Amino acid sequence: MVFLSKNSILSESDNNIILMIENKEHQYEKAVLVGLITQNQSEDKLIEYMDELEFLAFTAGASVDKRFTQRLTQPDSKTFVGKGKMEEIRDYVKEQKIGTVIFDDELSPSQLKNLEREMEVKVLDRTNLILDIFAQRAQTSYARTQVELAQYQYLLPRLTRMWTHLERQKGGIGMRGPGETEIETDRRIIRDRITLLKDKLKVIDKQMGTQRNNRGKMVRVALVGYTNVGKSTLMNALSKSDVFAENKLFATLDTTVRKVVIGNLPFLLTDTVGFIRKLPTQLVESFKSTLDEVREADLLIHVVDISHESFEDHINSVNDILQEIDAHQKPMIMVFNKIDDFSYEKKDEDDLMPGSHKNISLEEWKKTWMAKSKFPTVFISALTKENFPEMKKMIYDEVHRIHISRFPYNDLLFEYFEDEEEINE
Asked: Which pLDDT value is given to residue 271?
């Protein structure tokens, strides 16, 4: 996330007054993480979320020095954590010269203001951190516009905390001064910028809609899944292209469409932005056009990282977002990826404690709820291409079924393809 300095808005002309996204190389800065154990979030769940938050921080360019956790019934309305914990964090930050404090949940504007005043360092929440990563990753003008819109929507209600040097100007009778005027001016400018970006996205949405309509009589297939599950690697393997792939969160923001041919059957394969738990609502809204590729797809390939201990939660998170964008009833293939990275730890026979995901073998997983799934299911490695023939045959069958129902008089399929050798290539 980009931050306003006290004088940045006043020193620029109206056209350049709003902060624009900067793609800068991040130097690794020291940070601490803060999370809560509440009645709705157990300690095990918090540890899992904090692991993910640390990965997000690393992706953004921060090295985590320490984690702070506290057990509360609900977050404190003023400072998120209790007074004693806040003082503990403040003292540690000063002693260790930490530059950033990152909270696992979205903070209210007043909480951000109070925390920054007490700690005198940069305070970020999970939403802010994700927005910063998106700002770094956005490559095309379209993606940058989407991220910029999300940033301003996040920034608008938090603008007052940027103006702490003018806090004495509280407004009211006899108290209306330049501080209030400047804040209102900046709010108006940001609202105007948000309106301008929305109008720009509407034009782009229309253009992309036209592009989708001009793609001819081919079935559209979209890769969906949690972030960092290997969608781009799978895209490269299927389409023999070179889509950017990296072992970091949100490596892919820009939608990529490639033509893929299995046997004699061509179709369009789309690689989309990865999902994540607690995905900021601003991003869901601003990335509406990117998600339209999912919404308008004929078939979804839901890629899951089977090696991740919380892959079932990831599946639920993706399904929730699919439902939110009204794409949950589409035909789907479940692809459990990274079997080459899957680890199995056999429990001792005299160990009576409940086992974890690591104590279930791959063969045992295949006999659980996955075997009863209403969707075709396959276990692969996109990196080593293990079980690729089985997956390709599954995709071919689903695409073929959709194709002949959607385009019954299309002469593209001049004969039914049954040569498995070519599918297996």
From this structure: 86
| Per-residue tokens: 149 | 């819109």
Domains of the chain: 14-184 (3.40.50.11060), 215-423 (3.40.50.300)
Nearest to 327 by CA among 182, 223, 174, 187: 223
Q: What is the mean pLDDT of the chain?
A: 78
Contact in structure between 155 and 112 (CB atoms under 8 Å): no
| Residue pLDDT, tens place only, 33-87 | 999 999 888 888 899 889 989 988 988 888 899 999 999 988 999 999 999 999 9
Contact 269, 237 (CB under 8 A): no
Q: Tokens at residue 327, please?
A: 């794409």
pLDDT value of residue 2: 38
Three-state SS letters, 282-293: HHHHHCHHHHHH
Give the pLDDT mean for 261-287: 78
Q: Which of 249-263, 264-278, 296-310 has the lowest mean pLDDT?
A: 249-263
| Dihedral over Cα of 153, 103, 289, 327: its sign | negative
| Type of residue at 413 | L
